């Protein structure tokens, strides 16, 4: 299972990713977490990303693409992964598509959690309070100014991914405003249906081959008596072209009538002359 969770900051991507990680036993690949770890470890990437992240802006595409490319090579990601916070731009999505295609892999779905922007501030404030209560360090970008920028960046750079994945027939949207349990159930339904859809597709495939369809039709025709087939054909013809036929008959009758009138006139003229 290879999934993308899509949605603005505070929409619940992290919560749902964690749950799906347990359910499908595949890792959650959060570029935000990876970048925060790099910042903490003061790696060259971390030093480059620190201030950008604190401002609530996006780290350059090449940096995150390189991180993800490395991460999906790890053995624990072999059976799948949940991408949380990546891709965030169309070029990132294109880079991901290339990465997967090179490995002969494909995405199962991009799940969009739809939320009203008004609720994001409330949710982030709740997250900050919970982190404080647990004695955890508060994220440098979990403040009103940075959040405003993160939402703006989402609107401008990430929201276009909704139509990108829709075009690629991978987008599945659900209401992220519902309770955690309801969102979880909706995602499970989406993933269950995605799986069933793929199975149905695979089951239908042989029947769709032209050769198979021809022979099935031939078998049906052979099984039916000829007499039964004739009225059906005649019925279809009448139903499809009633007007031209009737018009044709009328025209022929008129032509015959006109011929008779002409003949009468010629006869009369002959008699007069
Ligand atoms: P997140 O934890 O997903 O909210 O990400 C926190 C911050 O990390 C973002 O505001 C960005 O500065 C940076 N970041 C995370 N993922 C990406 C990404 N895919 N592209 C660019 N920047 C990212």
Question: What do you see in this structure?
Answer:
This protein has 273 residues and is α/β, with parallel strands linked by helices. The protein has two domains: 2-208, 3-Layer(aba) Sandwich (Rossmann fold); 224-272. It is 68% helix and 8% strand. It is built from twelve helices and five strands. It has helices spanning 13-24, 31-41, 44-55, 61-71, 90-102, 118-133, 144-158, 160-167, 180-208, 210-223, 226-240, 242-272, and strands at residues 2-6, 28-30, 81-84, 109-114, 171-175. The chain has a five-stranded parallel β-sheet with strand order 2-3-1-4-5, with helices on both faces. The model is unreliable at 207-231 and 233-248 (pLDDT under 50). Bound molecules: adenosine monophosphate. Residues 9, 31-32, 35, 52-53, 56-59, 64, 85-88, 92, 141, 150 line the site of adenosine monophosphate.
Largest beta sheet, briefly? Answer: 5 strands, parallel
CATH homologous superfamily assignment of the largest domain: P-loop containing nucleotide triphosphate hydrolases
How many distinct beta strands?
5
In this entry the ligands are: adenosine monophosphate
| Helical residues, percent | 55-70%
Order of helices and strands: EHEHHHEHEHHHEHHHH
Domain unit count? 2
CATH architecture of the largest domain: 3-Layer(aba) Sandwich
Low-confidence stretches: 207-231, 233-248
| Name of the CATH first level of the largest domain | Alpha Beta
User: Radius of gyration, rounded?
Assistant: 34 Å
Mean pLDDT: 81
Strand order of the largest sheet: 2-3-1-4-5
Query: In one word, what is the shape?
Result: elongated
Distance between the termini: 100 Å
Here the CATH topology of the largest domain equals Rossmann fold
Q: How much strand content do the residues show?
A: 5-15%
Number of helices: 12
**By helix and strand content, what is the structural category?**
alpha/beta
